[in-house]
Design a protein that fits this description.
This protein is mainly alpha-helical. It has one domain. The chain is 58% helix and 4% strand. The protein is built from eight helices and two strands. It has a two-stranded antiparallel sheet with strand order 1-2. Helix 5 runs antiparallel to helix 6 and helix 5 runs parallel beside helix 7. The longest helix is centred in the N-terminal third of the chain and has 18 residues. It is globular, with a radius of gyration of 16 Å.
């Protein structure tokens, strides 16, 4: 028997004993109402651990949870959380929750670049979280959003400045 992963992927992770998912397994998961319900419960549980609340299950809209200050302190202190968040984002894409990906990435971009509450997550948000978003169009929107709020804008390296200036 193989160890169970909360957010399985088609790639190896840090746990060398856990085998990657196959495309057939992903399709089977996506067809199972029970599996998808459990997946959303697990997602909400992890969001709660990070100080985030899922406002709308249809859209994936998020907001800070009541305990956000204490949870953000944890996120800022322990960088291993960033690997888990990247894994969750990739898994959301695998399971067909691409809109959830967009909301979670935008949440972290807002908290790191606008609110400046998660300075130690900023690099992961820009280097990794952003690029898990499957929709090229949505990813472009998020890169543009990041560029708009990045300080100093001249140091932004996650997209070509000429295209970012002309965007929309």
């Amino acid at each position: 028997s193989f160890p169970f992963r909360l957010f399985p992927l088609r790639e190896h992770g840090m746990n060398w004993r856990a085998r990657p998912l196959t495309c057939q397994e992903i399709q089977a998961f996506r067809k199972s109402e029970e599996v998808m319900d459990r997946f959303i419960r697990a997602y909400k549980l992890m969001l709660g651990f990070y100080g985030i609340h899922l406002v709308n299950e249809e859209t994936g809209e998020l907001k800070r949870a009541e305990n956000w200050r204490e949870r953000f302190e944890n996120l800022n202190r322990f960088s291993h959380n960033n690997l888990r968040i990247t894994r969750i984002l990739k898994c959301l894409g695998e399971m067909g929750y691409e809109d959830y990906q967009v909301h979670l990435v935008k949440f972290f971009l807002t908290e790191t670049l606008v609110e400046e509450t998660l300075p130690n997550v900023k690099r992961s948000a820009l280097d990794y979280f952003l690029f898990t978003v499957r929709s090229k169009e949505k990813r472009r929107e998020l890169v543009h959003y990041a560029w708009q709020h990045f300080k100093p804008q001249s140091s932004f390296v996650w997209g070509p400045r000429d295209k970012l200036r002309k965007y929309r």
